[in-house]
Design a protein that fits this description.
Pfam families: zf-C2H2, zf-C2H2_15, zf_ZIC. Its main location: nucleus. It is a single chain. With 228 residues, the chain is mostly helical. Among the domains are: 74 residues, 2-Layer Sandwich (Double Stranded RNA Binding Domain); 30 residues, Double Stranded RNA Binding Domain (2-Layer Sandwich); 54 residues, Double Stranded RNA Binding Domain. It is 36% helix and 9% strand. It has eight helices and nine strands. A hairpin with an 8-residue loop joins strand 5 and strand 6.
């Protein structure tokens, strides 16, 4: 029976000769069959040991253009951008994701463990996040000039008309358990129409609500007055 032979991998070292940078550029061009061999070669032959104080990436067409790193380990981490090395696999069974940096793996593992060590620093907010970048995005809810906030999904808007348009999405998904059923509207400057809408809904008899074909039983009677 015919067996398909595995495709042989060929990895090439594109480290430039430091002594010929001002002349026509010439790269190392040594080839390797495994990533481990390529990484070992670059680390030992080009990056050098602790005696090296020049932590510059000389990989061909590196966008850093000769800018030095402050430490060797930072250069080693950077070189993975060129080689494609990802030495940090996720240990959780069935995941299969791999990462170039240990810090990225640490953040990823929180998707499995559920840990959220980054708490919102805004007083009164209890939201927590798995990484600092998600917390930073969330902080715009508090710091940006967008006072009209959706209670269902935390989206915020600068004008109440934009929020009303957005709430139509939740109206179409209305259910008794939906937060939109109670209010769905939060604003640091609530519109005056709110009190009027509440009074009008209080005067509406149950029979009138039942006869309204557009009314969603999973939403409050005055929902359309607020959001449509």
């Amino acid at each position: 029976r015919y067996m398909r032979q595995p495709i042989k991998q060929e990895l090439s070292c594109k480290w430039l000769d430091e002594s010929q940078l001002s002349r026509p550029k010439k790269s190392c061009d040594r080839t390797f069959s495994t990533m481990h061999e390529l990484v070992t070669h670059v680390t030992m032959e080009h990056v050098g040991g602790p005696e090296q104080n020049n932590h510059i990436c000389y990989w061909d067409e590196c966008p850093r253009e000769g800018k030095s790193f402050k430490a060797k380990y930072k250069l080693v981490n950077h070189i993975r951008v060129h080689t494609g090395e990802k030495p940090f696999p996720c240990p959780f069974p069935g995941c299969g994701k791999i990462f170039a940096r240990s810090e990225n793996l640490k953040i990823h593992k929180r998707t499995h463990t559920g840990k959220k060590p980054f708490k919102c620093e805004f007083e009164g907010c209890d939201r927590r996040f798995a990484n600092s970048s998600d917390r930073k995005k969330h902080m715009h809810v508090h710091t940006s000039d967008k006072p009209y906030i959706c209670k269902v999904c935390d989206k915020s808007y600068t004008h109440p008309s934009s929020l009303r348009k957005h709430m139509k999405v939740h109206e179409s998904q209305g259910s008794d358990s939906s937060p939109a059923a109670s209010s769905g509207y939060e604003s640091s400057t609530p519109p005056a129409v709110g009190s009027a809408a509440t009074k009008d809904s209080a005067k509406t008899p149950p029979a009138a609500l039942q006869s309204n074909p557009g009314h969603n039983p999973g939403l409050p009677p005055n929902f359309n007055e607020w959001y449509v």
